[in-house]
Amino acid sequence: MQVHDNFENWDNYANKCSVCLHAVDDKGTILWANDTEFKTMGYKPEEYIGKFIGDFHVDEPVVNDILGRLLRDETVNAYPARLRARDGSTKYVMINSNVYHGKGGQFGHTRCFTTEVGEKAWKALKQAV
After folding, report:
1. DSSP H or E segment with residue 70
2. Cα of 123 vs its chain's centroid, Å
3. Which residues, in sequence order, are bridge partners of residue 114?
4. pLDDT in tens, the chain (129 residues)
C-alpha cells in the first residue's frame, strides 16, 4: 500500500485513532492494545497486557463464542458485548475482529476493533445476533 508523504506513521495512527484496538493470541491473551482502549477501559498497560481477554468481559459465554469463532477463522462483525472497566462500570460495545495468520498459516493474533455503543444500541445489536 502506498502511503501519502504527509500521512502520519502507522504506530501513531493505531494508537491515537478514535476506536479501541487490541490483539490477542489463540489463548485469548492480550498482546497489545492502543491508547484509546486504555483510556476507554481505564486500565494501565501493565494491568491489561498479558491478561486473558475474558477477565474484562461481563458475560463469559460471549467471550467464549467470540474466541471460538476466531479460532474457526470466522470474522466477527458488530458483535454486542459488555466489558468491565477498571472503575467497575459496564461498557456496552460492538466488536469487529478477524485473525492475522503468521508464518505457515498459523494463528498469529486477532485484529479487534471495539466501539462503545451505549446500552440502548447494545440491546438492539443483541437482538440481531
Report:
1. helix 60-71
2. 19
3. 20, 95
4. 566 667 778 888 898 899 999 999 999 999 999 999 999 999 999 999 999 999 999 999 999 999 999 999 999 999 999 999 999 999 999 999 999 998 899 999 999 999 999 888 888 888 877
